[in-house]
Here is the input.
Amino acid sequence: MGSKFMELLLNAVKDGLLLGGFYGAISVGLTISFGLLDVVNIAHPIFIILGSYIAYVLNSTWGVDPLLAGLLPAPLFYWLGVAVYRVYYRSFERRGEESLRGLVFFFGILFLIEVSLIITYGVDYRLVSAGYIGRSLDLGGLSFAYRLLVPFLAGSLLTLALFLFLTRSFYGKAIMGVSQDRFALQLMGADPVKIKTIAFGLSIATTSLAGALLIIIGPVEPSVGRVYIGRVFAVVVLGGMGSVGGTLVAAIIVGVAESLTSIFVGPAWSEAVSFALLLLALAVRPSGLFGR
Amino acid sequence: MLATLLSQRFIRNQYFFFAGYVILQYVILATAWNILGGYTGYVNFGTSAFFALGAYSAAILINKLGVSHFLALVVAGGLVSGLLGLGIGYLTLRLRGVFFSIATLALAVVLQTAIINWDYVGGARGIYVLRPKEAPFFGHYVEFLFIMMVLLSLVSVGVAWWIENSWVGRGLAAIRDNEEAAECMGVPILKLKLFATTVSGILMGVAGAPFPYYITYLEPSSAFNLDYAVNSLAMPMIGGTTTWIGPVIGAVLLGTAQQLATVTISSHLNLLLVGVILVAFVVLAPEGIVGLAQRLRRRKLS
Here is the structure.
């Protein structure tokens, strides 16, 4: 009885870790837009779903590998993000009344994209096919499903790439700078608005790949985005609002917590876990694990 | 309102009552949302949770406990949703506005999951509710429902009007404009916020309570539909969030447009329209129609 329990536990933790890497990938864009820029982009998950659908179209029409189908549209997503931010900035941030209206704005965007997807593709579940989906890797007695492993690896790479970008490159450091002290940044000759626009565009660009990873893990339909709202915000807040490393750690915590809940309590409740963690984080330590 | 009451005696077309019911339902929902959203500045994305809870409470009373007296259903729906409002308020109102909003979304998701997994209320299969054949005073039950909704709308708008013009409304406005400053000036912000969430919840539950009789088949995906959240948000935004008239205008305009659109174009395109209008108004005319009217009046005077 004990070893069966241990086997379940080990599998739950393993799956949670893999899921966590994926959650990190989907949340790191929000770390930039919400954590660093303080933009309440509640529509972040639906951009991910949009990425999933584009990956689906590329994959089912031309047989493009899902990972590639996530990377190729990224520039388009970047410009989409830039456009959205421009509207947001001109309408809200400049006037200084961000909270209520900005939130409603992004909610409207969320709704628009979701309904457009429903109109175009209906509510059937869509999935992608690739050689590795459906197979798994057996290591040390545990089996790692490729549909989880590939997103985990790709997601971790994405997170690492962003971390390096933010800490090493000029624009990356400028983005970190604009969140901390925009006046000093202006003194250094950089335009804060331009930096913020680039940052937001980047955050949306990540959703292209994140969407492809999502549809590798499992079938997607438009309303799937809603359960991810809690997850991504939980991860970003728990991780410390702007810390990429924190995001990854928090993502793994959320992933493992969800996996354990799914196995020991029931899959229906695993979605609620991330919300619960979010509320807990906000009540106990709002600055997150690695917050500034 | 009087005109509606009189005209119903002469209109025999059943569809008018069906459509009118929905519009009135949105008047209540929009007004309820606005008490917390427009007056206090806290955006609630979880309208469907409160609405569905009111509907399910009524359905349980009807089917499992044999209660069919209309007022009892409304009171029950209102109470349960009011408690939910109080609870969620107590848990989340100390947080920043955006986290309150996310919590309301979470609430809708969690509650829907709970109902889907609860066989007592039919789970994912839903419950069938039998509509009574006879209605007190009026012939057809749907007409009765419609009249009741008219009364309930009047009550809701009355509540909003009272709040707006009382010290409560001034306190809520202070919270909306600058919460920290309000707290420093001694405004009892937590109590006022709890009041707003509870009253908002009560009214949303009241809107949901007659729903089982109206729709006769209650199931989770329609009761928790995101439409309720979007509409109850869009209508005050379009009509104007600072006064009681705004949600009414928004609900009547948008509600009627939607009823017309649903029969002429597809119901999904109709939703797309709502989304576009919402974003357009939030970006271009944040004070809503009421705000635009005020601006016009000021220009005429000067």
Observations:
- The interface with chain B takes residues 40, 42, 87, 91, 97, 99-101, 103-105, 107-109, 111-112, 114-116, 118-119, 223, 226-227, 229-230, 233, 237, 266, 268-269, 271-272, 275, 278-279, 282, 286 of chain A (CB under 8 Å).
